[in-house]
Every structure is written in C-alpha cells, then in structure tokens.
User: Which sequence fits this backbone?
C-alpha cells in the first residue's frame, strides 16, 4: 500500500511479485493505524538512503516524483504480513521513513506460514 496515486505506481509495478495498492487519500492508512509526521525524516539513517535513491534515479534518467502529493509525503512505513485467509500474522509500524522490515525479517515471518 502506498500513498501515491495509481498512475505514479503503475510505472513501478511491472515484474513485482506482489500487488501495489494506491491509497493517495490515506483512507486505508488511517484504517490500519499507519501514521504520518515530520519525524519520518528525523532519523539520520534516512538521509543517505534518500540521497542514494535520488542519485540512482538521476543516473537512470527516471522521471522525478511529483513535487506535491495529496496528504503530503511524510508517511511512516508499516509492514503487515497477511496470511492467505486474511489474518495479520505479523506487523511493524516504523518510527521513521526507513524503518521497515529487512528481507531477512520478511522471510523469517513468512517461514512461520509454511
């Protein structure tokens, strides 16, 4: 789930092994208790990640994200592992913009479903 409009997400969705859900008005964000706030950018660990992403995008000549977005860009990450029956089996709500599960953490949580 992303708080980007569907047209922005489409260009990033090709080949992904999961669905992307556009939620630009953050309706689902609120329903799931996912927060926004200036603290999303307060962690010093966030800035090198943002800089690398911008530089990589410039090198690839990617189209830059729009300068404005409905309801802002200060969303905090939240990860949910949802079992096939719809039960949430694990979750994490981030404290800053780069506070999400690592791939190893995702795989560890997913292994509990097998």
Assistant:
């Amino acid at each position: 789930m992303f708080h980007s409009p569907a047209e922005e997400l489409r260009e990033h969705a090709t080949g992904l092994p999961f669905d992307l859900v556009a939620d630009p008005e953050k309706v689902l964000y609120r329903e799931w208790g996912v927060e926004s706030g200036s603290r999303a950018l307060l962690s010093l660990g966030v800035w090198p990640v943002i800089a690398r992403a911008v530089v990589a995008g410039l090198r690839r000549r990617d189209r830059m994200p729009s300068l404005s977005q409905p309801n802002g860009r200060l969303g905090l990450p939240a990860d949910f592992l949802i079992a096939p029956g719809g039960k949430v089996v694990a979750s994490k709500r981030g404290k800053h913009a780069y506070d999400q599960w690592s791939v190893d953490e995702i795989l560890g949580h997913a292994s509990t479903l097998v």
